[in-house]
């Protein structure tokens, strides 16, 4: 049965979240109001203009967010069902009594 490595899943998720964070920062730098309108559509029309920061966007703040989301994505691998990997498919990693007997 095919297995996913939790390490590689964590790395992939961390890199993906970091790239999305960089893309978000880049679009916000060029089109702040359009970006807020776009994400407001995700929240069913909630006006996000009220939470817009008046502080200028600095490279340090962007890097902090990118690294933070990368770490969160990597740490999310600990929520996977098994330390050795997760099974691919509709069934979870359960052994039947017969499989346990065959293994012994």
What report would you give on this structure?
The chain is mainly alpha-helical. It has one domain. It has 4 helices and 2 strands; from the N terminus they run E-H-H-H-E-H. Strands 1-2 form a two-stranded antiparallel ribbon. Helix 1 packs across helix 2 and helix 1 runs antiparallel to helix 3. The longest helix has 25 residues. About 5% of the residues have low confidence.
The biggest beta sheet, please? 2 strands, antiparallel
Would you tell me the overall average pLDDT? 79
Spatial strand order of the main sheet:
1-2
Low-confidence stretches: 88-92
Helical percentage:
55-70%
What integer value in Å does the Rg equal?
A: 20 Å
**Which structural class is indicated by helix and strand composition?**
mainly alpha
User: Helical stretch count?
Assistant: 4
The total strand number stands at: 2
The gross shape turns out to be elongated
How big a fraction of the residues is strand?
under 5%
InterPro entries: DUF5676
Protein name: Transmembrane protein
Pfam families: DUF5676 (PF18926)
Keywords: Membrane, Transmembrane, Transmembrane helix
Describe the protein's topology.
Layout: E1 3-4, H1 6-30, H2 32-42, H3 59-75, E2 86-87, H4 97-103
Antiparallel strand pairs: 1-2
Helix pairs in contact: 1-2, 1-3
Features:
transmembrane, 4 helices, mainly alpha, 104 residues, two-stranded antiparallel sheet, 58% helix, DUF5676, Transmembrane protein, single chain
